[in-house]
Structures are given as C-alpha cells and as structure tokens.
Amino acid sequence: MNINLPNFNVKNLVKEAGSTISRVVQLTEEKLGTTERTEYDLHFQNLAERADVTKTWTEKLVRDTESVLIPNPQNRVEDFIFEKIEKSKPKRLSNLEHLALDMIEAGGDFGQDLPYGQALIKAGQAEQKLGQCEHDFIATSGICFTQPLRKFLDGEMKTIGKERGILESKRLDLDACKNRVKKARSMLGQQSAERDLRVAQAEFDRQSEITKLLLDGISTSQASHLRHLHAFIQTQVRYYKQCGDVMEQLQRELAKMQHPKPRLRINSEDVDCGPPSSVSLHSCDSDSVVGPALDSEAADPAHDLSLENLLEDFHIEFDTSAVSTVIFVAECSPVNEDYMYGKQGLMKGLVPRAFVEMLDEEHDVTL
Question: Which residues form the BAR domain (predicted)?
C-alpha cells in the first residue's frame, strides 16, 4: 500500500522555528528595555493613532446603526451569514406588519360593519404601510451608510493593518541587524553585519513611506464618510415624514367615521355631587303650571328638541309621559357648564342646561 506523505523540508522548518524564537526573545527584551528599539517618527505615530481611533469608532457606528435598523440580533446574524455566502437575505415580517395582520384579522372578527372593527381594519392597513416604509428605510440606509462603512473596514483598514504589520516586521529586522553590528567581533563579520543593516534600513524606510501614504488616505475616507452620513440623515428624514403622513391620513379617516353616541346615563356614584347634606333638592307643587322646555320649536321634525328626542339623544332615562316634566336638579361638583345632575323618582342622569327652564331659585326645572 503506497501512501503519499507531504515533503517536509527539515532545514526550512528549523529555520522558521529559530526565527520565531529569535523574534520572541527580541520582543521580550524590548519589553524589558534591555535592547535597542527603533522608534517611529512623531508624524507617523499621530497618523497611526488617528487610524486606530477611526477603526474603533467606525466599527461601533456600524454595529449601533445595524442594531437600530434590525433590533433582533438573531436576524442580524442570519443576514451576515447570507451576505458572506452571497445569497439573498430571507424576507421576514417586521413587528409592525405582524401587528397590522392581527389588527385586520381582529377587525374582521369583531365585525366590519361595527365602528371598532372598521377602525381596527383601517389601523391595520396603516400599520402595513408603516411596515413597508420601514423595509425601504432599512434597505436604503444599508446602501447609503452601513455598507460603505463596512466596505471601508474590510478594505482600506485591513490593508493598512497588513502594511503596518509588515512595517513592524521590518523594524524588528532592522533592530536585529543593529544588534549584530554591535556584537560583531571580526572585521569580516563587521562588514557583513553592516551590509545587512543597510539593506534592512532601506527596506524599513520604503515600507514606512508606503504605510504613511495609506494612513494619510484616511482623511479622504472620512470626507467620503461625511457624504454617506448626510445621505443617511436624509433617508431618516424621508422615512419619518412618510410615517407621519400615513398616521395623519389614518387620523383623518378615523375622524370621519361615525362613532356611537356617548351614553350619559349614570348611577348616583358616577357623578360627584358632594355629600347629600350639601345638595338641596326641593319638591315642587304638582299643580304648578309650567311652560314648555327651551328650544323645543326646532324646524326640522327629525331633529325636534322635544323632551322625548332630547332624552333619546342623550340616553337620559326620565319619564316623558307628560308634555312638561318637572324634575329635581343639583349642581355637579365640580360645576359643569353644560350639564346638571337631574333626578325624577328612581331615575337619574345628566341634563343639558340648554333644554331646561328654572321654575324658581330652588332648582326645580321644567323639561
């Protein structure tokens, strides 16, 4: 049985292992301060520091923006995986769209001919529009803001990081050559070490210039990021305006719908008229002759403000067998400018002031 084993170059393995060990020793000596270390110039240090700050904050901005656009972390992970395998992202309903479907279904079950059911359906349709606006906002924000920033991180910043790593390797080689020159004992060894030092210095200088050019390019990248930020803000403004328009339209539609008339019939504990001792209710003379209720001569019979129609409109349950009815009234506490609290026998409720006529100062009125 023939087995093909990979060809290992033992010399190369030993050489790489020795180089790794030498680097570890060199870095340890630099940490301890027992060996010489080539320092970067001040301009390069400022550029490198600005690059680190730019990378850190750009990563945070991308994460925070994606959290705002897609709050669910599981959905963000799924989108990231589909993006990496170059497949279309799955279409999923947003929370607004789930709410819209439930509202529409509930409105149908409650009854489309009832005010509440109609209102739920209209609200659900508006929520569907908001959900579509949200999808458009997320897609546009990704195109104009998060994707360019992520491309910057995956492209320029990775290139800068790679070149800085190469420069650091060149610096270590240069420092190693300087140490060999110091430790050279023979003339031949001195010459060889100095030759290696000149080569290492030239490579270090060349790599340093390349890295500086890349670091200087961050200023141009930030100008581009500023344009992307403006585009993102414009997208937000457009999104919130669309949402406001949808909700204002919904508000107008709901206002046009006929709502059930409010029922003003209440129990005695529903109206705070103060303690019984603070309210004076006086009986009236049953033989008193009273006039008709105020404003009872409405021109339109369908809207006749007679006692029967008045009480029917306001759901006040009083006996209307007589043409003119005398009831007892008291001021509500706090005083209501439009209504008084009325009572006739066991029946009680709110009475509009505009449709009563006071018989005397003791609050006996005619309806």
Answer: 29-263
